Amino acid sequence: MKIDKYILITLVMFCSLNTEIYAATKKALEKANNDSSDISSLQRGARNFMNYCSGCHSAEYIRYDVIGEDLGISQSQLKKYLMFNAQQSFDTINTSMEMEDAAGWFGQAPPDLSLMARAKSTDYVYTFLKSFYVDSSSPTGVDNSILAGTSMPNVLWELQGHQEYINDESGSGYLEIMIPGKMSAEDFNFFLRDTVNFLEYISEPIKNERQALGIKVLIFLAFFLVLAYFLKKEIWKEVK
Predict the structure, then answer these.
(1) What does the pLDDT look like over 129-166, one tens digit per residue?
(2) Could you state, in order of their start, the residue ranges of all structural domains in the chain?
(3) In this structure, what are the phi and psi dihedrals at residue 85, rounded to the nearest 5 degrees?
(4) Nearest Cα to Cα of residue 160 among 182, 190, 193, 186
(5) Residues 87, 75: Cα–Cα separation, whole Å
(6) Which of 39, 66, 165, 209 has the fewest CB atoms within 10 Å of its CB?
(7) Which residues of 2-11 are buried (b: 16+ CB within 10 A; e: fewer)?
(8) What's the mean pLDDT in 86-110?
(9) Which is nearest to 54 in space by CA: 199, 194, 159?
(10) Alpha-carbon distance 139 to 150, whole Å?
């Protein structure tokens, strides 16, 4: 009985600790508020991804022709604006960077981003991308308040500007712009929202179709339930 008691206490403490960690993580994240049905946003996000992310990161689970078909981008536009590292529209998004070289430069190879939005959530990616701050002790010159010790450089510094991390009286700390970038804070948030919107799209290209089909299935099941109820009443009305 004593052993069972200790096991129960341990489980309660473990669950409480995980709840606190989960709550702290969720509290730190900002809402991306992206809309995966917004085609214009997805088109801008594709542009952002190819211009700022594809130099280091691949997205090997999505093809250019699928992007073009889903987002209303013509073959000529694909080749002109998006296909920097590909020859054919049926190619997947690959980086020209050698992973061994990247691992030597950054300490580890940049991950493929095909499923990043599903694995980490769009809120996480959105908050991560806007949480870089200047850190002279880091090899890249920056750190991140969401992922301390990150090996990723701040590729968006020119747009956002340089931030510094300021410790407040509560000890939680906050980020503040020291040198403004080319974009206002509002414009930069829109830029990130479009980018994570595209990342969510490539992580599940059929999401909107799946959700639309799910609604139709629920409507059918509701109709069938009503029909089955009245059919059952009709069949069993003579049975007492």
Answers:
(1) 999 999 999 999 999 999 999 999 999 999 999 999 99
(2) 1-30, 31-205, 215-240
(3) -120, 25
(4) 182
(5) 12
(6) 209
(7) eeeeeeeeee
(8) 90
(9) 199
(10) 10
